[in-house]
Amino acid sequence: MLTSGSVSGKNVSQANPEALIKEDEIDARVRELAKQISEDYEDCGEIVLVGVLKGAFIFLADLSRRLTIPRAIEFIAVSSYGSGSRSSGAVRLVMDVRGSIEGRHIVIVEDIVDTGHTLKYLIGLIKSHRPASVKTCALVRKAERAEVDVEVDYLGFDIPDKWVVGYGLDYAEHNRTLPYIGIVTPAD
Ligand code: 5GP
Fold first, then answer.
1. CA gap 166, 138 in Å, rounded
2. pTM for this structure?
3. Which residues are identified as catalytic?
4. Are 77 and 135 in contact (CB under 8 A)?
C-alpha cells in the first residue's frame, strides 16, 4: 500500500530490526502456499495474481515463481487516508489493474492484513471487474486488530500487533528489502 500520510524520515530506519519471521521460514511457507494454490486451481487454466503495491512485490515475485500452474500477473495500488503507522480505514484507489480480468480466476496477493479494510475494499473492487472467481492470499495478518470480517483464503502467518518490516514491507520506505520480517517501533 502507498501511504498518504507523511512520516518524518528521521530515526525510523533501524539497521537490524528484531527478527519475527526468519528468511528460511518465509521461504518454506511460500512454497507451501504455492503448492496449495497450484493444487486448488489445477483444472482452472490460467489464474491471475493481482499484487498490491508496493508491499506485496517481493512476496508476489517468490510466490508466482513457485506455482506450477499457468499464471498472469497484474498490479493494483491503493492508499489509505491516515498518518504515520495507523490507517483511518478509508481506502482510495491509486492504480487499477491494466489488463482485463473479466471471467478470469483472481488471487489477490497482499503483504499484510491489519484491520482488514484494505482487503475488503480490494475484493469489492476486483468483483466489480466481473471475474470468474476471487480469492485472497496474504503473507501476514494481525488477527487481533481485525475490524471487518474478511476472508484470507491463503495465509502465511498470523502475527502479533507490532509494526513489521522487510520482505516488501516498509516503515516510511525503510527496510523494504530486508530478507526477513522484523519488528520496528514506529515513532508515532
Ligand atoms: P488494513 O488496516 O486496511 O488491513 O491495512 C492497511 C495497510 O496498512 C496494509 O496494507 C499495510 O500497507 C499497512 N500496514 C498495517 N500494518 C503494517 C505493518 O505492521 N507494517 C507495514 N509495513 N505496513 C502495515
1. 15
2. 0.91
3. 114
4. no
Q: What are phi and psi of 126, to 5 degrees?
A: -65, -40
Say how many Å lie between the CA of residue 113 and the centre of ligand 1: 6
User: What percent of the chain shows pLDDT beyond 70?
Assistant: 88
Confidence of residue 9 (pLDDT cuts 50, 70, 90): very low
Q: What is the pLDDT of residue 136?
A: 98
Contact 179, 23 (CB under 8 A): yes
Instruction: Name the average pLDDT for the chain.
Output: 90
C-alpha 114 – ligand 1 centre gap (Å): 5
Nearest alpha carbon to residue 154 among 125, 177, 134 = 134
Q: What is the residue with the minimal CA distance to atom 12 of ligand 1? A: 1
Give the separation between CA 126 and CA 23, rounded to whole angstroms: 31
Measured in whole angstroms, the distance separating CA 128 from the mean position of its chain's CA atoms is 20
Bridge partners (DSSP) of residue 76 are 52
Q: Which of 92, 114, 122, 177 best tests ligand 1's pocket when mutated (most atoms within 8 Å of CB)? A: 114
Cβ atoms of residues 176 and 54 within 8 Å: yes
Q: Is 66 helix (H, G, I), strand (E, B) or coil?
A: helix
Structure-derived torsion over alpha carbons of residues 10, 13, 14, 17, reported in degrees to the nearest 10: 140
